[in-house]
Structures are given as structure tokens and as C-alpha cells.
Amino acid sequence: MKKRLIIGSRGSKLALWQSQWVQQALSDHHAHLQIDIHTIKTRGDKILDVPLAKVGGKGLFVKEIEQALLDGHIDLAVHSMKDMPGDIPAGLCIGAVPLRESPEDVLISRTGTRLADLAGGAKIGTSSLRRAAQLRIARPDLDIQPIRGNLDTRLKKLDDGEFDAIVLAAAGVKRLELTHRITDYLDMTTMLPAVGQGALCIEIREGDTAVEKALAALNDPDTHTAVKAERAFLHRLEGGCQTPIAAHAQLKNNQIHLVGMVADLDGRQSFRGSISGTPDTAEQIGVQLANQLLDQGARETLDNLKELANDC
Fold this sequence. Notes:
By secondary structure, the protein is α/β, with parallel strands linked by helices. The protein has three domains: 1-98 and 199-219, Periplasmic binding protein-like II (D-Maltodextrin-Binding Protein, domain 2, 3-Layer(aba) Sandwich), CATH 3.40.190; 105-186, 3-Layer(aba) Sandwich (D-Maltodextrin-Binding Protein, domain 2), CATH 3.40.190.10; 221-312, Porphobilinogen deaminase, C-terminal domain (Double Stranded RNA Binding Domain). The chain contains ten helices and 13 strands. The chain has helices at residues 13-29, 43-46, 52-55, 63-70, 129-138, 151-159, 170-175, 209-215, 221-237, 282-308; strands at 4-9, 34-39, 76-80, 92-96, 105-109, 123-125, 143-145, 165-169, 184-186, 200-205, 245-252, 255-263, 270-277. The strands form three sheets. Strands 2-1-3-10-4 form a five-stranded mixed β-sheet, sandwiched between helices. A five-stranded mixed β-sheet has the order 7-6-8-5-9, sandwiched between helices. α9 (221-237) packs parallel to α10. The chain is globular and about 60 Å long.
């Protein structure tokens, strides 16, 4: 067993909260370990004036950290699972997935108004094409606009009157103890979450058995299984920077239930389905549901979106 581990993390308040949580959890199980956090600025942290989809989408917040892991500068990386692309670089793997926080999205409005009660034309900020597409399905009369920056920055833009409301992941709001700001929890019929939303991804080098063993106590098998199904769905659809894709899986009574969705950018076309099976078939279930949506017509929508992706 190593005596010192270095965690790679983004420097945002939320990313550091997540890495410090992993640091403490590891210390609780391995008192002999010295565990340090090394902050790394990613491309997504540097480019703040352009919508995510225009500069690379998924992977923007992980690539530099993954390179540091491959180069041996850090021993493990802590990411938000929803930031992880469908493909993981050769030489790396997911070492553990801790117990998931709330996977849903929330609305925070300046006047305390719920989504259903917002006035037509209200300006809603979101950095996510997935959220934007589903908002346009639920409320086509709203003005959906991109917003960038960390959680505190987005809340300040809201409070300064730049937006009437913003949509965020519940998990981040809860982890930073800002639950009192939440106006509306968006149910999954209205807003299906991003793949892996609410879960952490602890990434390690393949074959690093010492780190893998150290992380074993942090892994939640049910969360890990659910994430496998969601990520298999994403991988089969080859989700990229211009693809509004959503999925959520959960385990109940020794069955895994997966719901998935693909939409176009304006929400005029959407494809949604669900599937169930045993936990040991999680990845197969993800692929099967993706194939069902492709057969329903999602293939043409994705092909059209891939043409737009050339601008990313």
C-alpha cells in the first residue's frame, strides 16, 4: 500500500468539496495514508465566455486531469460523473463510484416562482443543451439562454437580474449547502437528468491495484451498476458536444430500471423509452435502450446534430 496519494481536482468550490469528501473518506478507512489534493485548471475552466457545446462539451472538464493521471503526476482523479465522456482514455478506468446524491435538476428563480408558473418570455439560464431542449418541450414560451461560470457566479447573475431563473443539478446545490435557494425540484418526466448526474467518478490508472484496493470501501455497488447502464446508453449513442442526451437508472427489488431520452436542440423532436433487467445486464440494457431509440428515429436526429458538432 502506498503511503501517500495525490488527488487531482478542478479548483472550483464544488470540485474541491467533492475531492475533499473523497480525501476524508479515504482517511477514515486508511489512517496511515497521507492524502493531498492537487488542483488542475481544465479547458472548461479557462473558457467562460462561450457556450460549452461550442468549445467541446463533454470532456472539457476532465482531459487535463486525465493527462496528469496518465503521466503519473496524480494517483486518482475526482470528477462529476456527468462530465465524463462515453469513452475513457486507454490506460485509465473508473476505480470507484460512491453513493449517489440526488440526480435531479432544480430551478432557482429570482422571485421564488416555480417552472409551471413562470411568465411567458421569462429568461432562463442553463449551460446544458439537454436542459435547454427539455425546457423547450415543457415551456416553449420561455426564453432559454446560455449561462457559464461556477455555481456562485450563476447565482450572482441571477440575483443581479440577468436571468429570471436558472436550472442546476440538485447535487451541487445540496453539496454546497444552498438548498434554501431551490425554488422547484424538476421531476424526471419534465427533466430527465444527465448521464451520471449526482454521482462522483473516481478515476485511476488501469492496473494500479494499490489505489483500487484503497478505494474499494468508497464504492457503492448499486450506484456503480446504475451508472454503468447510463454510460452504456451514452456510449452507444456516441453522445458528444451537440447531443441533448439524458438517462437515469435505479435499482429496485433486484431489477435495474433505465429511462433514456434523445432530443434535438429546439425540443421539437424527442425520443424517450425505458427498459428493465437484472443488475448483471446493466451495460447490455443501456445498449438495448439506445438501439430502441435509434430505431424509433433518433438516428436521424443524432446524424443532424453531428453535422453541427463540426463547429464545436
